[in-house]
Design brief:
Shape: globular
Distance between the termini: 36 Å
Strand order of the largest sheet: 1-2-8-7-6-5
Number of strands: 10
CATH architecture of the largest domain: 2-Layer Sandwich
Number of domains: 2
CATH superfamily of the largest domain: Thymidylate synthase/dCMP hydroxymethylase domain
Oligomer: single chain
Helix content: 25-40%
Mean pLDDT: 96
Radius of gyration: 19 Å
Largest sheet: 6 strands, mixed
Low-confidence stretches: none
Length: 300
């Protein structure tokens, strides 16, 4: 594999964090090694997308999550109905703490799916990502759809330096299960009509979370480019506090020892009438040949 393989950026970042990262006790109590201020760049113009190959990434889960964000809804029931379980930890912990019922995760998820009233009470994450992206509430009570505004600007004023959306709504933070990590997305259109996206992520679980952020960001970039009549450009990822949890050190070292394989290609099988029309079946991935998955537990 070429020394210029873009995945090497990520593997070298894992190495830097483990070798030079600051040992920190974090809110979860697990502990991390952490660096501050990192940047990775991925070129999507040739059809390839940054879905990591040094471990299997369940890319459909990441894309389903992004599609869920775009609905503007915030209850995990819709995710669980699609067998996406990555957000269960937070409402499950809240339920156990509030009720004293140490219900198993599988049983909790099954009840969320089966019982709509239970899901409404215990499955909502508060005003997280999608709520802010599609239904930001201002001081006068007006809702703002940041995604629709962005697409309109991409189509009609692509030289704008104000093409962005974000989720760090200070007044809503206390109501969120988890304050937004990937909090700002900014966009740029060059003279070749290529759309690039910069994601600023204030906090990144580098072993577990980053792969999903790269995949979801790439899927979003493809959708927005298609809706605006543009071509995909670069995905630029900027991390603030970039860390590896102590219970992932061995797994990260295992991943660092693997050789990257070619990135897969992703294409959209059709063009829906709007950003709201995409489904997981619209994403076609070819050439994905990853190393085996490496398990790691989420720190809550």
């Amino acid at each position: 594999m070429s020394v210029d393989h873009p995945e090497l950026q990520y593997l070298r970042l894992l190495e830097r964090v483990l070798d030079k990262g600051d040992a920190r006790l974090d809110r979860t109590g697990v502990g991390t090694r952490s660096l501050f201020g990192e940047l990775l760049r991925f070129d999507l113009s040739d059809g390839q997308v940054p879905i990591l190959t040094t471990k299997r990434v369940y890319w459909k889960t990441a894309v389903k999550e992004m599609l869920w964000f775009l609905t503007g809804r915030t209850n995990i029931r819709e995710l669980l109905q699609q067998n996406v379980r990555i957000w269960t930890d937070w409402p499950l912990a809240h339920y156990r703490q509030a009720t004293g019922d140490m219900i198993a995760q599988d049983a909790f998820e099954a009840r969320i799916v089966a019982d709509e009233d239970f899901a409404q009470q215990w499955g909502d994450l508060g005003p997280v990502y999608g709520k802010q992206w599609r239904r930001w509430l201002d001081a006068e009570g007006r809702e703002h759809d940041q995604i629709s505004t962005l697409i309109d600007t991409l189509r009609n004023n692509p030289a704008s330096r104000r093409m962005l959306f974000h989720a760090w709504n200070v007044g809503d933070l206390d109501g969120m299960a988890l304050p937004p990590c990937h909090m700002v997305y900014q966009f740029h259109v060059n003279s070749r009509q290529e759309l690039s996206c910069l994601i600023f992520q204030r906090s990144c679980d580098l072993f577990l979370g980053a792969a999903f952020n790269f995949t979801g960001g790439a899927a979003l970039l493809l959708m927005l480019a298609q809706q605006a009549g543009l071509k995909p450009g670069e995905l630029v990822w900027v991390g603030g506090d970039v860390h590896i949890y102590a219970n992932h050190f061995d797994q990260a070292r295992e991943q660092m020892g693997r050789t990257p394989r070619p990135f897969p290609a992703m294409r959209l099988a059709r063009q829906p009438a709007s950003i709201d029309g995409y489904r997981i079946e619209d994403f076609e991935l070819t050439g994905y040949d990853p190393h085996p998955a490496i398990h790691g537990d989420v720190a809550v």
